[in-house]
Structure prediction request, 155 residues.
Amino acid sequence: MLGETQERPIGMLPSSLEPLKIVVIDDDPMIRTIVGRCLTHFGASVTLCEDAARGMRAIEQVRPHAVLLDLIMPEQDGFYVLRRIKTFGETHKWRPGVVVITGLRDSDLEQELEQAGVNYLPKPFTPRSLFQAVHQAAGSLSLSENHLACVPNAV
Prediction:
């Protein structure tokens, strides 16, 4: 199995990340779960992956609008995934938006990622900043303050 897919619960009001497909790649199960729940709450369809290999399979099969990617992971790290996404984009003429979620605080890294068209979201982050980073990576969507007000805690 690629990863666990979370769909928006039935009866939940539509939100501003609907109908986006997002792949989350992070080796920390708690971060994956929290980020997945936040994004699902905002209306996105989310596929959670625990490592780079599963993440790349999900990207190729799901063709998400955005990928949230941890940089520091065992075996193949987030930089490996970034290179693969770039190659995939050149080969298939399609590339998802990317948000790097990391505990690293490095202004040089942040600049390099931004120059490469990758959004940088340092941990810890709030649901609001997560929403904004995904919003920016996936393209122009309307920001719904109502959906952000009910989840104020940092991730």
